[in-house]
Amino acid sequence: MAEKLNYTEMAHDIVQLVGGAENVISLGHCMTRLRFVLKDESRADTKRIKAVKGVLGVVSAGGQYMVILGQNLLPVYETAIRDFHLNASAETTENLDAKKQPLTPKTAVLGALGYVSGAVASMLPGLVAGGMLKVVLLLITLVNSGFADSTTYTVLSGVADAAFFFMPIFVAYGAASKLGATPIYAMIAAAALLHGNYTALVAAGEPVSFLGLPLWLASYSSSLLPALLISLLAFYMEKFFNKIIPGIFKSLLVGLCTVTVTACIGFLALAPLGGFLGTYLAKIFVFLGDNIGFVAVGALAACLPWLVMCGMHTALVPFMTQALVEPGYDSIFRPAFILHNMAEGGACIGVGLRAKNANQRSEALGIAFGCIVAGVTEPAIYGINLPRKKPMIGVMVGGAAGGIVAALLGARVYIMGYSTLLALPIFQDTIIAAAAAIAMAIVVSAVVTFLITSDTDSSTNTTQDTNTPVLAPAADDVLTAPVDGEMVDITTVNDETFSGKILGDGVAFVLENGLITAPCNGTIGMLADTGHAFGITRPDGVEVLIHVGINTVEQKGNGFTLLAAEGDTVQAGQPILRVDVDMLRNKGYDMTTMLIVTEPADKTIAFVPFGNVGHGQIITK
């Protein structure tokens, strides 16, 4: 039996051997490596670090000193952060070799959308949780009207509202994390907007001055834009003060100066500016909903399947959140998202009704149920509708029809919720309008799909489509190509960790497109939040790691769309990731993708000759 490693001892040895905590600017990690940014890399004793039990190798590249630990990574990382109080949030990409994008209107807009989307993404699960708790409380009061007067309702209502009331703090955390700043500084400056001292001034309504200047009084609870602006300022203030304050005083003065300056400018300028912009955004939403809602919702619902496949739908999330803040309802974005899911499900119903093969019919109808009731659309998009092509027309027509009905009948979302039939109560008093729109989307997409497809269309032949996976059954003891592209020798990869087979033997691929699928039947044991890597365990115990690109973890998820979740049981060829390969290549990343057998489980695994391969093609002998 293998000797159990002492993770505390490993962490202490590694930190000391890289030059001690005082030589560490920041420490991050991906799925296999500790990633140090050091003040002086020459102080690191690479030879002795390699000799530490449990260390698989050391790589220095792009301004990062990387210690490869494989499965021993997380406990060592957590111990190092905890025991040495290392900075886990600092920017780690300033000195990397990735090319900077030139500043153009396009890159500026994309950068702004990326910042806002990243800031909002981390709080969305909380908003959905709070919104769904409100739905539950609403349903209980419908059954028991006296429940609304109970203290239980009062407390639980406060829990549900907390995610929305304290939104500026949660936005600040997400924004600071996205920027690579220290989150607590932005969170404090945002939290000050909700402090009783300030809210008392707002309630009093009397003119006040701050630092000799008039202070614009407004309520910022549940606001979005003020926190985004404040967090951006906090990021630059922290960088500025870190640069000018001598090292011996940094721990005392950087936080003090960052929080104070950010809060002062926040109260005087940024929070009022954010409130002003939020008000005008609300007016735009109201105008669109009241005047051309049937066009806006219908067009968005029709386009969403393509936006989802490109990962661009996430750019709409901030507008959805802002609409719920002001004017207090969303008549465009969430309705369109829900109707798109319903239309995907309806198209699957059309495919299932047309199919003569019992297995295909059962699969299509089962996936339709998942779309409509669970809100999970990826199997429908990549497994049913896109491979057959024609059902995508049904999805678009059904989404557009549902959107038009929703807008004409005045369907509005008042609470954040998931895009599923079970979330109908989030429409509150417009629930009948929403139900009618949902029924329209499902029926129209099902009928259109049924009419324009044939049973021949229902038998997938996805090997002819380079953007869709092969879902034909594969044996449990084989590995299949997770990508379309050229399979090459892993020893040619421009990264010692992979080319040296430190993590295990395997192969590499030069990508033709951005769809990454499961290389075998099994369970997803780990899936990085950043999307750059995932691991699957086969039924026979063999463990496989897929690593997309080299150093793409630095993008923190930008360019990666997750199509599955950790713990999912998957089949060979099932979509796991959608990657914006062109964008990442333009940023200078090597997008060579590795398949590594990290645990062979006493099995002999041999690969077929190198060459062009496609999704689902068996690559082991």
Written description of the protein model:
The chain has 621 residues and is of the alpha+beta class. The chain has 4 domains: 78 residues, Glucose permease domain IIB (Gyrase A, domain 2); 174 residues, no CATH class; 169 residues, no CATH class; 129 residues, Distorted Sandwich (Glucose Permease (Domain IIA)). Strands 14-10-11-12-16-8-7-17 form an 8-stranded antiparallel beta sheet, with no helix packed on it. α5 runs antiparallel to α6 and α11 crosses α12. It is flat. The protein starts with 6 loop residues before the first helix and ends in an 8-residue tail after the last strand. About 4% of the residues have low confidence.
The tally of domains stands at 4
Low-pLDDT ranges = 89-100, 458-468
Strand order, main sheet: write it out: 14-10-11-12-16-8-7-17
Category from helices, strands and their pairing: alpha+beta
Relative strand content: 5-15%
**Rg, Cα atoms, Å:** 26 Å
Q: In oligomeric terms, what are we looking at?
A: single chain
Number of strands: 17
